[in-house]
Specification:
Immunoglobulin-like, 2 domains, 6 helices, about 325 residues, alpha+beta, 4-stranded mixed β-sheet, globular, about 30% strand, Glutaredoxin, 17 strands
């Protein structure tokens, strides 16, 4: 079960930002393009499973390569201007515009004195805009305007697909009654429960592996579920996002059940855990990390991917 990865994720394998652990290598989907004026700068769409006629979160990362190595744009804001390309045979049609605000991975700096390019070890994240609606399915383009202090304004263009409907479980749909692995699961290695439990190491977050999604639905308990592989995620977002869910569980443990679903049952043999495959594996493709908020009625309230705003999720948990 191969995982397909974006340009940004591929770049992270060499020590830079990745927007997600997967994307699309479908030849019918245009690849991210670079600014002609600055070939060492690139923007890549982090969001996957976008669909039309629904307000969505849109996330995008920006990185550069120079004599200092690969760095990513951090802090501040960027401007998004969207246009509809359809099948690419007609002229682009102007679409919505939005402001993307920097969103760092949990445990990394969320703001700084000024927008800057940072080494991934210092800061890593994406720019997120809320409530973006694409009115038609097809290929879209986002022109991202960046203005780093001391540099000229630059526009980076990236293309991405928008479907007619979501392919993964989405808000408003009923959650799948999944029997994910827990600390009580028999006959499985600890690393299948959490990939960080390798070579005899203990599962670092057993409180996130105490129950199943199916049990939560049966008990009419709200749930916050993170699908992620902390050890093998190329984006370096999965581990911090699992830690972020663990931090939320400390504060809101009385509001919901908190669950981590590990992606890999056996990474070396490319075997994906059934729970992760049921939720995320579509058309030989699996994207992660994803975070799902499920209501007491078993209906999905919200989802985030690949990064989530800790304060935003906390607000939704508090409202349960």
């Amino acid at each position: 079960m191969p995982l397909r990865r974006t340009l940004l994720a591929a770049a992270l394998a060499f020590g830079v930002l990745a927007a997600a652990c997967s994307g699309s290598d479908n030849p019918n989907v245009p690849s991210p393009t670079r600014s002609a004026a600055s070939t060492n700068l690139a923007a890549s769409v982090a969001s996957t499973d976008l669909w039309a006629k629904t307000p969505l979160r849109f996330e995008l990362g920006v990185f550069k390569s120079d004599a200092q190595g690969v760095q990513l744009l951090t802090f501040g804001t960027v401007s998004f201007a969207f246009s509809f390309l359809g099948d690419g045979s007609a002229a682009p049609v102007k679409g919505p515009s939005a402001t993307g605000t920097y969103l760092g991975a949990f445990g990394t700096p969320q703001d700084g004195p000024a927008q800057t390019f940072s080494a991934p070890s210092d800061a890593r994240g994406v720019y997120q805009a809320e409530g973006v609606t694409f009115d038609e399915p097809g290929i879209w383009q986002v022109d991202t305007t960046i203005q780093v202090p001391g540099s000229a304004s630059q526009i980076l263009s990236s293309q991405f697909p928008v479907a007619a409907t979501p392919s993964l479980p989405a808000p408003g749909e009923r959650a799948l009654r999944t029997d994910n692995l827990t600390m009580d699961s028999k006959g499985v290695p600890a690393s299948a429960i959490d990939s960080r439990a390798l070579d005899g190491a203990a599962v670092p977050d057993p409180e996130l592996h105490a129950t199943t999604i199916a049990a939560g639905i049966a008990a009419h308990r709200p749930m916050l579920v993170i699908f992620a592989t902390p050890t093998y995620c190329q984006s370096q977002f999965c581990g911090p996002e699992v830690d972020g869910v663990q931090a939320l569980a400390t504060t809101y443990g009385d509001k919901a059940d908190f669950i981590h679903v590990e992606i890999w049952r056996n990474f070396n043999k490319s075997v994906i855990n059934k729970a992760a495959a049921d939720w995320l594996y579509r058309n030989n493709d699996l994207t992660e990390p994803w975070l799902y908020l499920i209501g007491a009625n078993g209906v999905i309230i919200d989802r985030w991917g690949p990064l989530f705003d800790q304060n935003e999720v906390a607000k939704e948990l508090a409202a349960l």
